[in-house]
Amino acid sequence: MTVSPVSSPESVGLSRTQLANIDRHLQERYIDAGRFPGALTLVARKGTVAHFQPLALADRERGKPVATDTIFRIYSMTKPITSVAFMQLYERGLVQLDDPVHRYIPGWEKLRVYAFGNHPNFTTVPAERPMNIRDLLSHQSGLTYGFTERTNVDAAYRKLSVGQIEVAGTLQTMVDKLTDLPLEFSPGTAWNYSVSTDVVGYLVQELSGQRLDEYFEEHILRPLGMVDTAFQVPAEKVERFAANYGATTDGGLQLLDDPRNSTYLREPTFFSGGGGLVSTASDYLRFCQALLNGGTLDGERIIGRKTLELMTTNHLPEGKDLTAVAKGRWSETPYTGVGFGLGFSVVLDPAKGAISGSPGEFAWGGAASTAFWIDPVEEMIVIFMTQLMPSSTYNVRRELRSIVYGALV
Hints:
Layout: H1 16-31, E1 38-45, E2 48-59, E3 64-65, E4 72-73, H2 78-91, E5 112-118, E6 121-126, H3 133-137, H4 152-160, H5 171-179, H6 196-208, H7 212-224, E7 244-247, E8 253-257, E9 278-279, H8 281-292, E10 296-297, E11 300-301, H9 305-311, H10 322-325, E12 338-340, E13 345-347, H11 350-353, E14 362-365, E15 371-375, E16 380-385, E17 388-389, H12 396-405
Parallel strand pairs: 7-17
Antiparallel strand pairs: 1-2, 1-16, 2-3, 4-9, 5-6, 7-8, 10-11, 12-13, 13-14, 14-15, 15-16
């Protein structure tokens, strides 16, 4: 267990008074109103933690408060870790971004695209070109998520439990199911939030010869000292594991996952590179700080500086933002003025997005309303932890951005 020490905000050019508005805002608008069980916000600048404040409860049923070492389900904040893991293998020369995916998953050579119909009676057409590795890393693959409830293809994902952590199976069974399902669109022609990063996790296993959890531990988690980040919560850490809640129609909370009998207590078989990890704010800070440092922390390098630059560059066609190319209208980022790299959203134009920030800032979030962003221009990292699903319930991420950027002096 590691907990980040806190220093004076003024020492790194931040206003203590303005940072206090983070806690005031969360307490008054979300916690006192019964919208959030509790929250934890961490703000770091120039390698120094300037704000790290737990609020209210991690487990309402037991009256257990949020602490600086509380363990949270980070869901899709797993995706950047998986993407970095894959790009480590790219740096070893084992794979290229323009490689066709079927080189590594032979059954995917002749994937087809949905035209009409319902599962299992789909009518399909040939894809315009094969799916490549960059399509997966940038969510331009044509894959989807079952929970979006938008198309007949995602209905088939739900029916077959594609990519669902709670359902018994493995990454291999997921890939096998996807082999028999059509794509939403031809690879490279649009953007759609999807199980693509779970497929990336599968490829990490295939290329490295290691199970995904073992690869993470050896090549990212242990080198960075991320001692509380894993696909499972061991018995000795259950007391620190937060409960997960869902938003009710009247603005309240309902328990979705009790930390005492959660699926995260059992040894997993499906290692979801798209959303399977739990972590703490201090652990995730170490990952973010390594990225802000150009890939290194405390003498341990997890990714090369130029590789990271490639990952945090917009890979959408013709440099467009997500509003121009996205099929689905939901993900863990705003679309206006925001592009997408290889595992991260990337801010292109803060003015277009009508929110404070810096071009080149990269970020992502998780389904239980967690979020992080890294601003290389301001040398700043922000990590927000809570446990409320879905993440689209409230606009808290944008609100936090306006407060945090207002603290720069």
